[in-house]
Amino acid sequence: MAKVKLQNSVWNILCEGLKLYFKNIGTFTKYMLFPVFGQILGVVMIFGLTFWFTLNLPSIVSKHAIFSDVTVIMISLLVITIPGFVVFLKAFWDFLVAYGALNSMTQAVMTTGKLYDLGAHTEVITKRTFTYIGLLLAISVLTIIAINPLFWVIGLIFFVYFILLFQVFTFEEDKSIIECFKRSFNLVKGNFARTFFIMIVLGVIAYYVLTYCVTALFEVVRLSEIIKSGLEIWAQSLPLGDVNSMTMNFKIPSITPLDVANQILSSSIWFIVAGLTLPMRSICWTLWYKNLSEVKTPKTPKKGK
User: Which residues in 10-28 are b (16+ Cβ under 10 Å) and which e?
Assistant: First the structure.
């Protein structure tokens, strides 16, 4: 497969990106399985084991008097949640690394038409772990600031300008963290509307269309009913009565265990779909980065000319 040549068109970017994604969807999905489901498994292990322990605490105390001590109970809760935290943190880190590694994978698919040796693409990011963590921390700080309603508009604007941060970090290894921000800003500058349009289209596909389809599928096969019944049982152990009492004066509707179950299920489906389709978005942004770089980076004149 020859190197993909793209015109400066958002439709070419989206069409080529979706084509590359679906041609390699098996490999990309396999790569994202643990980063996505590992986080869910970690959370389930943490809350599941905690729920089991508290549910069986009376019988445990009757058999082992030492567990009547509050300190022992707290230490026991801490110990049984450690495996869940380990699984969650490993999956969460792999998910963050994927933001960069997927760009390298996209380049491999573009140039060779094949996708293999996934570890080598991951190493493109992990060999600069400390710099990458610095980049993630900088993004986190800006995100926290943007959460403030006063900065919503300007936060959205800068989000668009910095949308190519991970591509710059992956392909321009000589760039510092600040230079990555500057480079992304300069690439998007003059292409804000088209970049924003790509972001909207990808968001609608991943966060709405596919999420709606998966939710409908869960309903058809009655999987939603099974999951919600289990979550509702767990939610009954939560102090919802106290919460409802505190919010009663604010005329907020009471929260029921079923409400909690519905919210957890819908959020989980959203997270799974968003996580598994991260390769789709990364591919499109890599193509857009390559396109803008080719247009905006001045070519070095050959010697003698």
Answer: bebbbebbbebbeebeebb
- Tens digit of pLDDT for each residue in 15-40? 999 999 999 999 999 999 999 999 99
**What is the pLDDT averaged over residues 42-60?**
88
- pLDDT(279) > 90: yes
Answer for the pair 77, 86: CB distance below 8 angstroms, yes or no. no
Structure-block tokens of residue 16: 């080529």
Token pair of 1 as six digits = 């497969």
Q: How many CB atoms lie within 10 A of CB 299?
A: 6
> Is residue 3 pLDDT above 50, yes or no?
no
Give the chain's count of helices (H) and strands (E): 15, 0
Place of tokens 């004149």: 301
Angle between helices 70-112 and 129-147 (to 10 degrees): 110
Cα torsion through 181, 184, 186, 189, rounded to 10: -120
The dihedral of CA 155, 158, 163, 165: what is its sign?
Answer: negative
Instruction: Tell me if residue 254 falls in helix, strand or coil.
Output: coil
